[in-house]
Design goal:
This protein is α/β, with parallel strands linked by helices. The protein has one domain (4-114): Rhodanese-like domain (Oxidized Rhodanese, domain 1), CATH 3.40.250. 45% of the residues lie in helices and 17% in strands. It has helices spanning 4-12, 17-27, 37-41, 56-63, 79-90, 102-108, and strands at residues 14-15, 30-33, 44-45, 49-50, 71-74, 96-99, 113-114. The strands form 2 sheets. The chain has a 5-stranded parallel sheet with strand order 1-6-5-2-4. The chain starts with a helix and ends with a strand. 35% of the residues are buried.
Length: 116
């Protein structure tokens, strides 16, 4: 039962904030924030790499070279991240997942942010 929220998220290609933390800590997931640089600068998940959605296809491979690592895609509310998961998977990142609810869910879970 403890894994139920994570399993539900995995079925939709999205993780809860708690599931995301576990993925980062246990499997060294790479966090990619697809918001615009101005949004990213206001606060982001610690260690996140900023690759705006409109540049994802061109720049993801140069930003995240190891396609076997889990990829956690973050945006403001989760809507853009869900679209980005499809792009990432098309590029060979089989373990790409979106953060359900985006950065808002991360903040709501009282998880730390870093400002650029």
């Amino acid at each position: 039962m403890l894994f139920w929220p994570m399993l539900q998220g995995a079925n939709r290609g999205a993780l809860t904030a708690e599931g995301a933390v576990q993925l980062i800590n246990r499997q060294r997931a790479v966090v990619v924030d697809i918001r615009e640089p101005e949004e990213f600068a206001t606060g982001h998940v610690t260690g996140a790499r900023n690759v705006p959605l409109n540049q994802l296809e061109a720049k993801l491979a140069g930003t995240v070279k190891n396609k076997s690592l889990p990829l956690l895609i973050v945006c403001a509310s989760g809507a853009r991240a869900n679209r980005a998961v499809a792009t990432a998977r098309k590029l060979g990142y089989e373990q790409a997942q979106a953060l359900a609810g985006g950065l808002k869910a991360w903040k709501d879970a009282n998880l730390p942010l870093t400002k650029a």
